[in-house]
Amino acid sequence: xxxxxxxxxxxxxxxxxxxxxxxxxxxxxxxxxxxxxxxxxxxxxxxxxxxxxxxxxxxxxxxxxxxxxxxxxxxxxxxxxxxxxxxxxxxxxxxxxxxxxxxxxxxxxxxxxxxxxxxxxxxxxxxxxxxxxxxxxxxxxxxxxxxxxxxxxxxxxxxxxxxxxxxxxxxxxxxxxxxxxxxxxxxxxxxxxxxxxxxxxxxxxxxxxxxxxxxxxxxxxxxxxxxxxxxxxxxxxxxxxxxxxxxxxxxxxxxxxxxxxxxxxxxxxxxxxxxxxxxxxxxxxxxxxxxxxxxxxxxxxxxxxxxxxxxxxxxxxxxxxxxxxxxxxxxxxxxxxxxxxxxxxxxxxxxxxxxxxxxxxxxxxxxxxxxxxxxxxxxxxxxxxxxxxxxxxxxxxxxxxxxxxxxxxxxxxxxxxxxxxxxxxxxxxxxxxxxxxxxxxxxxxxxxxxxxxxxxxxxxxxxxxxxxxxxxxxxxxxxxxxxxxxxxxxxxxxxxxxxxxxxxxxxxxxxxxxxxxxxxxxxxxxxxxxxxxxxxxxxxxxxxxxxxxxxxxxxxxxxxxxxxxxxxxxxxxxxxxxxxxxxxxxxxxxxxxxxxxxxxxxxxxxxxxxxxxxxxxxxxxxxxxxxxxxxxxxxxxxxxxxxxxxxxxxxxxxxxxxxxxxxxxxxxxxxxxxxxxxx
Length: 679
Description:
single chain
């Protein structure tokens, strides 16, 4: 298979000349468009090589797609690119030294400005740099800020493969079309397969991208040309072809090692050197399996590295091809490999050593074990991600160490302060220190709802409810959520707090928080569950707890419980019903608290004393001697006076299956640590 796609080479001719001949300017932006698989990433490599020959300094910014650390990775690529082009004048050291995001972004933009005459930034899909995961919001904001700063504020020439912000208008757009497959070459085993596929589905193949064709040839080699032809001629969707390829590789023991290798390669975040491919298991492949790897799963980049396409990488991550243990072992192998690469590159003074150092730290932090002392971070985000992974695994003390180091690295990082506090808080440790760091996070970034929510819940947990009320009012003001509220803010600021308040029976506070939810957000399922629970607890506190939690307290007044028949044994109709709860059982009387609701009036309750003999006469279930306090009943009145009759049904003693998760962290954690509670 050739290193280049001739169609992409030809398409870049005019763009190369235009970029090279332009002067640096804020509007010096060009775009490469096209569907996935048409060669946009290859086009950036082609341009980089040609512009370098022309004496310019092209730097490709292609951080891992939607990774939480996309922003620092792109900064590292910029610094290394400047140094390799001979333009670095301390920028690389400043970008990778201690300091926070704002200072490093400012340094990056200053470096771009300083070298704008020669520098050309080649940005691969900047719209995909920010992670979409809710837990990555803080990191995603940095990626968005970097992408927008580069594209909107820079004066150097920029070529973007992908989408542009609305405010950026490209000078021209190069659109890569599907059907560019003439540059693909196949090995001895796959060449006849590709020829047969061309005969059966030639017209359809003319509309396919190079990636599509590689996938179709792989399916044809594994499942037959007819199966691949049906895919090519049908309603073609690349993701479905990838799934078919996964199934085909998993069906045969002889090709399954290739599927596992695919899973390991998907953990590599950038270009894959040939020796790394061997390290991950390719040395055991031969014949058609080796050709499938080289010609279908990977494509070469011309610098003795290979690339797994984003579509294949995303598939392996969405539906993992490796077990958790296999993933951990692969991260260990990659950490060792990058550590070795760092040592080799550093010995020769190659600035790419820092990229190897960065990746070694990344993979080591994914293993769940202790990091080697030799692995130093280059950005505070690495420490934060390490802390987050330790915390998610329940290793809270190690998470505390990581976030302490992050705070020392950048004392103005609200994320680090918040999660240092949280990982102490979740253990019920060092309440004074928890309060300091939660407070620091809120002061640094008062627009983050999580920072407010965790602090308020901390105050509730340690019994400082009045201060928690003031902190809640402050959060509502700062976040401006009186009229509208997003899903994340609703969950974190409102609903998580209410769940804890109900657990602590702080009903007035819980009611205030629920009433602060804007009406348009009250359709949320968790909101409705919490509202129902709050109503039940409020009524129980007011002596109206006559309905079990398994029943909606309002629904019982709309229609009778199913235990009551529509007519009694004499065919008399049900006229009225009253829910109740057995308060006491004695030899003289059964005490039942009975609820009554008349029209639109709120429900009320009163105590009914029934002699045991009368209770037994009315009950269709347990007799008075079998009852225990706390059982719920319903009284049905049938017929009209003076012939009306009362029937009592004792409701099933069903355990309440709480659909709401228990509050997290454990509300009694500080008491546990003091030894005040045991369970």
